[in-house]
């Protein structure tokens, strides 16, 4: 593995461990006169094309507020109450009610509103820029007045060596400097030493895919944005201001965030056992990037398996640690357990139930209308217009084709959401039942203790 790839791998591990393993510092100060005895951090309004960014930044702001001695209402309880009692699922719906009403329903003295303006990474080869920017407003729910508000954007950049990289960096900073309302601050600028644009682009894309795969994409930038934007936030009242505070665990075992399954359109896998190749092409609206991948897939009963070559998806095997560039995703629906296997190191991780965007194959709400029939890859199929609503609020619309000769198995879908347009097909379908061994963890695999454990070689 070359020097750049090693730096990417090492940096990813350091960021992940710093986010997951290091305990939060105990606040040194508090202000007992602060009237906001308990605060709810509300779902963020999302002005970006990234569906995960709002929750990433929301969690970082909760950590930042707790570090400033604020008592935060449990976020899962907050979301459930907003959903069940007020019909609010998204941050953009909060304008339909008032801070006073939110305070009454949630039982809090303050609510933190947030709008995510930027959560993206631009990779050109000459310059790779990672950005997180947001505005926040902490409101007193007794009088509806703003207690504190501020906005900030943080950016890090990796530029190619030489004059071209420097010029690209200067131009990008000048463009950002024109945005006066919510200013940018560059917190890190690194020169790669690479002088080939194609190679630099490949490294940047590989690093981006890796950080997304292991669940730490823009983690550093989001953490720093939350820390810096709350620097002038008044100190909170401290936990003693609330009579009963839910006990916090003293320590939690380090768990690995499993890689997300690559995004592809909705497919109904039906009741038949089969094996096939899942071929998917995605066009990302924000960046214009186009990604195509082919994944072997096998189904037996409620069990499902996908084998993914992440390095092939990046079109550059050297841009990812070889210990982690191949994964096998298992859903054992009959046992309600999911696993991610790493064949290169003979290790696995357990995907916990309810883990955000984990490999859970959730059952979304489907609204479909039959609009005719077509032949797809030799199979007569019913064509449906569909609207798909996932549990996290994401909505996709488009078309699916269910093969009549395969018991309505979805063999093709064309859907889009606010982020991307995706076409997915099942090819080379075989209706023979896959062997049971495909859905078992090999006996010589061991459970990984953390990301650093995955980066190391096979267990003896």
Characterization of this structure:
With 460 residues, this protein is of the alpha+beta class. The chain has two domains: 3-240, Rossmann fold (3-Layer(aba) Sandwich), CATH 3.40.50; 274-455, Lipoprotein localisation LolA/LolB/LppX (outer membrane lipoprotein receptor (LolB), chain A), CATH 2.50.20.10. The protein is 23% helix and 34% strand. It contains nine helices and 18 strands. It has helices spanning 3-20, 53-67, 75-86, 99-106, 163-177, 197-213, 219-229, 310-314, 451-455; strands spanning 39-41, 45-46, 110-123, 127-140, 146-159, 184-191, 274-284, 290-300, 303-309, 326-332, 337-342, 347-351, 365-376, 379-389, 395-403, 409-416, 420-430, 446-447. The chain has a twelve-stranded mixed β-sheet. A hairpin with a 5-residue loop joins strand 4 (127-140) and strand 5 (146-159). It is globular. It starts with a helix and ends in a 5-residue tail after the last helix.
Short description:
With 460 residues, the protein is of the alpha+beta class.
Which short descriptors sum up this protein?
460 residues; alpha+beta; Rossmann fold; outer membrane lipoprotein receptor (LolB), chain A; six-stranded mixed sheet; 18 strands; globular
The major pleated sheet works out as:
12 strands, mixed
What fraction of the residues are assigned to beta strands by DSSP?
25-35%
**Poorly predicted parts:** 1-23, 194-202, 244-262, 315-319, 353-361
CATH-defined fold name of the largest domain:
Rossmann fold
Alpha carbon gap, first and last residue: 23 Å
For the CA atoms, what is the radius of gyration? 24 Å
**Neighbour order of strands in the largest sheet:** 13-14-15-16-17-7-8-9-10-11-12-18
Number of strands: 18
Kindly report the oligomeric state of this protein.
Answer: single chain
Name the shape in a single word.
Answer: globular
Q: Structural class of the helix and strand makeup?
A: alpha+beta
Number of helices: 9
Mean pLDDT: 75
> SSE order in H/E notation?
HEEHHHEEEHEHHEEEHEEEEEEEEEH
Query: Mind telling me the CATH superfamily name of the largest domain?
Result: ABC-type transport auxiliary lipoprotein component
């Amino acid at each position: 593995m070359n020097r750049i790839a090693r730096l990417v791998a090492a940096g990813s591990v350091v960021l992940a461990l710093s986010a997951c393993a290091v305990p939060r510092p105990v606040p040194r100060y508090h202000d007992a006169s602060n009237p906001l005895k308990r605060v709810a951090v509300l779902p963020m309004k999302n002005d970006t094309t990234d569906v995960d960014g709002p929750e990433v930044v929301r969690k970082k702001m909760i950590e930042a507020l707790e570090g400033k001695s604020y008592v935060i209402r449990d976020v899962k309880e907050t979301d459930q109450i907003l959903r069940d009692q007020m019909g609010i699922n998204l941050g953009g719906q909060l304008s339909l009610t008032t801070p006073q009403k939110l305070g009454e329903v949630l039982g809090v003295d303050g609510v933190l509103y947030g709008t995510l303006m930027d959560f993206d990474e631009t990779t050109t080869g000459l310059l790779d820029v990672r950005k997180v920017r947001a505005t926040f407003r902490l409101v007193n729910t007794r009088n509806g007045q703003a207690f504190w508000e501020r906005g900030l954007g943080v950016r890090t950049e990796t530029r190619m060596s030489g004059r071209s990289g420097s010029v690209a960096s200067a131009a990008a900073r000048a463009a950002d400097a024109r945005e006066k309302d919510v200013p940018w601050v560059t917190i890190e600028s690194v020169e790669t030493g690479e002088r080939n644009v194609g190679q630099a682009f490949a490294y940047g894309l590989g690093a981006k895919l890796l950080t997304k795969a292991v669940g730490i994409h823009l983690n550093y930038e989001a953490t720093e944005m939350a820390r810096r934007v709350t620097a002038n936030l008044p100190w909170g009242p401290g936990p003693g201001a609330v009579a009963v505070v839910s006990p916090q665990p003293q320590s939690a075992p380090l768990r690995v965030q499993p890689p997300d399954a690559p995004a592809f359109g909705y497919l109904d896998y039906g009741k038949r056992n089969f094996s096939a190749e899942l071929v998917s092409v995605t066009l990302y609206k924000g960046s214009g990037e186009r990604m195509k991948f082919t994944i072997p897939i096998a189904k037996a009963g409620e069990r499902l398996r996908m084998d993914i070559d992440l390095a092939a998806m990046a079109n550059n095997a050297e841009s990812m640690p070889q210990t982690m560039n191949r994964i096998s995703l298992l859903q054992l629906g009959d046992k309600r357990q999911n696993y991610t296997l790493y064949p290169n190191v003979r290790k696995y991780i357990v995907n916990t139930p309810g883990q955000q965007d984990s490999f859970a194959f959730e059952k979304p709400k489907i609204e479909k209308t039959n609009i005719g029939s077509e032949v797809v890859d030799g199979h007569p199929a019913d064509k449906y217009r569909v609207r798909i609503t996932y549990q996290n609020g994401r909505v996709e619309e488009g078309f699916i084709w269910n093969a009549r000769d395969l018991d309505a198995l979805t063999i093709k879908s064309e859907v889009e959401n606010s982020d991307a347009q995706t076409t997915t097909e099942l090819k080379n379908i075989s209706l023979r039942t896959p062997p049971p061994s495909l859905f078992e963890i090999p006996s010589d695999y061991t459970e990984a203790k953390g990301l650093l454990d995955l980066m190391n070689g096979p267990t003896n």
